[in-house]
Amino acid sequence: MNNTFYSAGMTLPRSFRMRQLEKLKTVLLDYEEDLYNALQLDLGKSKFESWETEIGPVVQEICYAQRHLKSWMKPRGAATSILHFPSSGKIIPEPYGTVLIFSPWNYPVQLTLAPLTAAIAAGNCAVISLPPASVHTSQVLEKLLADAFAEEHVRTYLGDIPTNTELLKEPFDYIFFTGSPRVGKIVMEAAAKNLTPVTLELGGKSPCIVDRTADIGLAARRIVWGKCLNSGQTCVAPDYILAEEPIKGRLCSALGQEYKKLYGDNPLNNPDYPAIINEHHFDRLCALLEGQKIVSGGRYDRQKRKIELTIIDDPDLHSPVMEEEIFGPILPIIPYETLDDVKSFVCSRPKPLALYLFTHSEDTERRIMEEISFGGGSVNDTIVHLVNHGLPFGGVGNSGMGRYHGKYGFDTFTHYKGVLKKGNWLDLPVRYPPYEGKLSLLKKLMK
Predict the structure, then answer these.
(1) Cα–Cα distance between 115 and 61 in angstroms, integer?
(2) Which of 94, 191, 215, 382 has a 20 to 30 Å separation from 7 between CA atoms?
(3) Catalytic residue among 201, 258, 308, 325
């Protein structure tokens, strides 16, 4: 992308950013029906789920940025030391410049347009790599973004491997990647060659912990809901359950019952139940079930690319289902006896993107929140922390780096420039040579 548009200062005024955000919202709603159709073709999503998890969160993100942009953009004062007297400090938000956004196929609308919203609000130009796997949605997004923005401001590419390889050679000012840890490492290695800062929104095996004090029926309903959104193809979906031994059997039964309540006796024919993205991932998921003890579910329809929510009891911990991120409607359940067992199990694995805890015990909540590192999560629910503008969303360790949503998204795409302004009416001689006899005074001033 030619950076002339950014260099000319076109994106800097708040009025320009506000107009662009409003245009994005307007055009997004103009393409609402096209996006519904595309998401149904790619992922089997109903209109309700498409609004709930794709279009609606972006509209919220845009409206939130519009309400708060004026305060976000204001320079703010900063304290200065007596050593610098007389002086004042200021922190000035400025855009990075031209940013590269890689979006994934599992939530192609939300995970393209939410980071783009933050980038625009922060005053950047953007290049977007759209996912080829969700091809129908990517085609609509390409048209949508062409209608909303000048090509010099926002440009899109269909991100096949050769295209992404070429994009990563370019010296962008910031890279925002959502995808797998494996590809995230490739992105970070390429970014290092140009010393480009990155945000990596990755994934991993997010645990769901259920203890004996939990409301088992409600926990089962909320776990099933979170796992079945997008048919489990969600980076923060519960990947496996750690259930306290005395309630494991009841929880297994409740999960099956709640699944039936939500999706009926034949969920494979239920239009509210989404599909797997393609045959490759369908076959991968079916292979994960081989040799496992299935306690409920297990049926599938290859033509519709649908797999029932399948509960696996006490899986082999060295099998692929426990060593790979599942990313589908398969849910292993493992018993535990003590919280020390939980801590040992989770902490022996890469740090997860999300963690969910179902409990009525404040002591259990305190220990899990304080003693286990994870990107973010919920207590007595799943997924919902993702759409709270007041909370940062991002990973830690193997599950990613950086954060966004709301103000955190603006911060991600903003460089905060620190400036010290010095007064001219007094010039303390202590900092200038000769230094003899000044060390003790310097030590006092620098405390």
Answers:
(1) 9
(2) 191
(3) 201
Please report how the helices 56-73 and 110-121 are oriented relative to each other, as an axis angle in degrees rounded to 10: 10
In sequence order, the β-bridge partners of residue 92 are 417
pLDDT tops 80 at residue 3: no
* Closest listed residue to residue 278, CA positions, set 36, 35, 43, 40: 43
Residue 73 backbone dihedrals phi, psi, to 5 degrees:
-80, -15
- For the segment 89-117, what is each residue's pLDDT rounded down to a tens digit? 999 999 999 999 999 999 999 999 999 99
Contacts of 266 (CB under 8 A, 6+ apart): none
Pairwise CA distance, residues 368 & 429, whole Å: 55
Q: What domains can you pick out in the chain, each with its CATH number?
A: 4-202+399-419 (3.40.605.10), 207-387 (3.40.309.10)
What is the value of pTM for the model shown? 0.94
Identify the active-site residue in 228, 235, 252, 325. 235
CA angle (230 as vertex; 328, 295 as ends), nearest 5: 40
Q: What is the distance between the alpha carbons of residues 121 and 72, in angstroms, rounded to a whole number?
A: 9
Q: How far apart are CA 104 and CA 318, in angstroms?
A: 28
Question: pLDDT confidence of 2, banded at 50, 70, 90?
Answer: low
Residue 235 falls in the annotated catalytic set: yes
Residue 175, pLDDT above cutoff 70: yes
- How far is residue 419's CA from residue 88's CA, in Å, rounded to a whole number? 8
Closest CA to 297 of 312, 310, 280: 310
> Which residues neighbour 251 within 8 Å (Cβ) at sequence distance 6 or greater?
210, 216, 219, 220, 241, 243, 333
